[in-house]
């Protein structure tokens, strides 16, 4: 077990967990009988008569593991008691059981950029470096470096990547061709193309993306990075730096001048829906929702959608490339060796290959480079994802425990800009509020 400092009060974490406890009958139990030693331990090793508990959220990665699980149990003899929850239920349940000191579950899914710091500061995440070290067959170096960055805390890997997302640009091939325009490779070119294709009277907006205050922050991130900015530098808020303000200004300009009315109410579902209905020329969001963005087989644009790497700003093209879901081990588990066998299997090259063939975009570079690993994905999409994995940044939101509050603070800058208020003034205010939030977390 490792404790990642005292920057967020254990007492606060405990109170948070116990507040939720009334809503749950967690049935926590202490499972003893096994030492939590490290070691690669091949999956072929017989684990007959032993069992572990695994909690999973709702995702294609979880669906794939559930489908393949009988093979693992038959091969190893290890019984896996797998329970699924909605994403928010999973997060709440884990917080409750961790706060109560439960040794169960042994393994669980988490959304690293939402929960890793929360769980890490409580000392609840087992470091996994020691288990993967020296295991040539497992080949931990095969994971995309920026995806690993998403599951690393204080230099230690505390979860293994299950699925990834990258910010990419969706565009209408037919509209660009009709206007004689090339696919934009820079943010300047994107703005010019969005302006040229913006035709509200004809039912087509130049650009669409998320406009909801909290939801938009992850998609704003690539604009910041590509202009040389970031949300923070260590414990220093940086959302009002010239580079960050320039990136925010890009996003605001595209939405305000060339976006639809009512953009304030748009999360990814609404933005993707508008694009899939043929009502926007450009759309930027997570690669994982490409099948929704292009619409169903009956969609009028299903064969007219192109995919491009996020356009370059003054700092180059820097889209996020993150671990959307990771698989972690409970630091309090009494069955660590068996827990690692499950994690090792679920994130192995073979299972990632099969999972990706089922539609779950994984984090292993070798699978993306194998023709069998990209079956079913559009050819242009594959090239964009691979390039985004190569150049990507490993976070898409502020990096602190109270990430939701931070997203509200930062997202409000865009809202003010959409209301035609001064973006720099809004960024200065947000930076002060964001710094106060960071300082509060750092306090004993």
TrEMBL record:
<keyword id="KW-0732">Signal</keyword>
<dbReference type="InterPro" id="IPR006059">
    <property type="entry name" value="SBP"/>
</dbReference>
<dbReference type="InterPro" id="IPR050490">
    <property type="entry name" value="Bact_solute-bd_prot1"/>
</dbReference>
<feature type="signal peptide">
    <location>
        <begin position="1"/>
        <end position="22"/>
    </location>
</feature>
<protein>
    <submittedName>
        <fullName>ABC transporter substrate-binding protein</fullName>
    </submittedName>
</protein>
<dbReference type="Pfam" id="PF01547">
    <property type="entry name" value="SBP_bac_1"/>
</dbReference>
